[in-house]
Design brief:
Blueprint (H helix, E strand, L loop, with lengths): L5 H4 L3 H19 L4 H22 L3 H19 L30 H18 L11 H26 L42 H12 L1
């Protein structure tokens, strides 16, 4: 009769290492969510390093062209609404100030856009270390193709924005002020009013008191 020991069900070293790295990497991504400027600054620095390496090597232009096409695809998803406005699904965007405020929901959220862009440029940098990926090509033609594709794609995106009347950026909910400003009035202080009563006259003195006063005068 065979028995199962702890060593048999325990995962391998590389499996446990991969899971530990994935957990730490996810924790790092979760912690970087609120740091918008630092995330994109890091991404721009990595892109600058890639451009500098390509300039020094003077090659891997086909990798750069593929990276540009991928970034253009991510940009279109970032600027496009989540719902397909061409279909009559009942989903509309607010067109005036009297409608309820609804922030712009992107097809590709900002954090996913940053993560995909950073991952793509890191992969591109890794590809520059393999010589067989340096396919000889006339780079001005690739640059011209990319510029034409970028102009046509953005032109179509701008027409889509004008047609459905939306702006792919949300600056926060508008606040409105009423015509009459509400001012806080202080409660009036109550003054103590003295009643206008006639003065109480002194009571006439009795005969016993008058007699005592006369005796004092005689003495």
């Amino acid at each position: 009769m065979s028995t199962t020991t702890f060593a048999d069900v325990q995962e391998g070293f590389f499996t446990r290492l991969r899971k530990s790295v994935n957990i730490r990497f996810m924790m790092f991504l979760d912690a970087s969510v609120p740091h918008f400027i630092l995330r994109w600054l890091f991404c721009l620095i990595v892109y600058g390093l890639y451009a500098f390496r390509v300039y020094l090597i003077e090659g891997f232009y086909i990798i750069s062209y593929g990276l540009g096409i991928y970034e253009l695809n991510l940009l279109i998803g970032f600027l496009s609404p989540r719902d397909d406005l061409e279909l009559d699904t009942g989903a509309t965007l607010p067109t005036n100030d009297h409608e309820d405020f609804r922030p712009f929901e992107r097809r590709l959220p900002e954090f996913d856009f940053w993560k995909s862009s950073t991952r793509a440029v890191l992969v591109a940098i890794t590809c520059t270390f393999f010589d067989f990926l340096d396919i000889p090509v006339f780079w001005p033609i690739l640059l011209l193709y990319f510029i034409i594709l970028f102009v046509l794609t953005m032109k179509r995106q701008i027409k889509h924005m004008i047609k459905h009347r939306y702006i792919p950026f949300t600056y926060g909910k508008k606040t409105y002020k009423g015509a009459n400003a509400i001012t806080k009035k202080e409660a009036p202080q109550l003054k103590r009013i003295r009643p206008n009563r006639p003065m109480i006259r002194s009571l006439p003195k009795t005969g016993h008191e008058m007699g005592g006063m006369r005796r004092v005068q005689k003495d």
